[in-house]
Automatic annotation (TrEMBL):
The lineage of its organism: Eukaryota, Metazoa, Chordata, Craniata, Vertebrata. It holds the Pfam family Metallophos. Signal peptide: none annotated. PANTHER family: DOUBLE-STRAND BREAK REPAIR PROTEIN MRE11. Residues 10-209 form the Calcineurin-like phosphoesterase domain. One of its GO terms (cellular component) is site of double-strand break. This is MRE11 homolog A, double strand break repair nuclease. Keywords: Hydrolase. It comes from the Eukaryota. Gene3D superfamilies: 3.60.21.10. GO terms for biological process: double-strand break repair via homologous recombination; double-strand break repair via nonhomologous end joining; meiotic DNA double-strand break formation; mitochondrial double-strand break repair via homologous recombination; mitotic G2 DNA damage checkpoint signaling; mitotic intra-S DNA damage checkpoint signaling; telomere maintenance. GO terms for molecular function: single-stranded DNA endodeoxyribonuclease activity.
Length: 217
């Protein structure tokens, strides 16, 4: 790499629908999904990516088994914590971006954590928020400081998507996310013009836009 170019280039590993825990009791295929996540995280570490972006359905079941959560947490801790520096900064209001947690800031900026590879994830339709508290399995990973859960819309009437504004060198990336919503409901909101994407206030044309979504077309 030309080092100057390296300073301004985002290297992002994108993965989705890992479905951890699928067939975990099967004698032959039981470990398949865990092997998959391990390979993904190994790949991220070997290639020194800036961050990992997950597109939903990290878990196959809405309430993953204890074994499943344990394996997931263990792997994230093994690969995503460490001393390698994170070379980008977040310019947006993180209280808006990470609105499902009592720690509304990106994990690598937490002075009590040592994160080498940040993971950003939306939820899918298998691991979507349920119950009165509206919690999903990702919120456990978020509370433990291993994953940055974004794209959770709290309203069923209208959606306002506020991007995570990320800068590396001179490169600016607006990362939009929308966790899975029942297709009919989202369709209705689009038809009624109740879905809006917020834009950066300054230099709107200077940003790359990336939208992470988990729906049927």
């Amino acid at each position: 790499h030309d080092t100057a170019d390296h300073r301004d280039t985002f290297k992002i590993l994108i993965a989705t629908d890992i479905h951890l825990g699928y067939l975990e009791k099967d004698a032959i295929r039981g470990n398949d999904t865990y092997t998959t996540l391990d390979e993904i995280l190994q790949c991220a570490k070997q290639n020194e990516v800036d961050f990992i972006l997950l597109g939903g359905d990290l878990f196959h079941d809405n309430k993953p088994s204890r074994q499943c959560l344990h394996k997931c947490l263990t792997m994230l801790r093994k690969y995503c914590m460490g001393d390698s520096p994170v070379r980008f900064e977040i310019l947006s209001d993180q209280k808006v971006n990470f609105n499902t947690t009592q720690f509304p800031w990106v994990n690598y900026q937490d002075e009590n954590l040592n994160i080498s590879i940040p993971v950003f994830s939306i939820h899918g339709n298998h691991d979507d928020p349920t119950g009165a508290e509206g919690l999903c399995a990702l919120d456990l990973l978020s509370a433990s400081g291993l994953v940055n859960h974004f794209g959770h819309s709290h309203s069923v009437e209208k959606i306002e998507i506020s991007p995570i504004l990320i800068q590396k060198g001179i490169t600016k990336l607006a990362l939009y996310g929308l966790g899975s919503i029942p297709d009919e409901r989202l369709y209705r909101m689009f038809v009624n013009k109740q879905v809006s994407m917020l834009r950066p206030k300054e230099d709107q044309d200077g940003w790359f836009n990336l939208f992470t979504i988990h729906q049927n077309r």
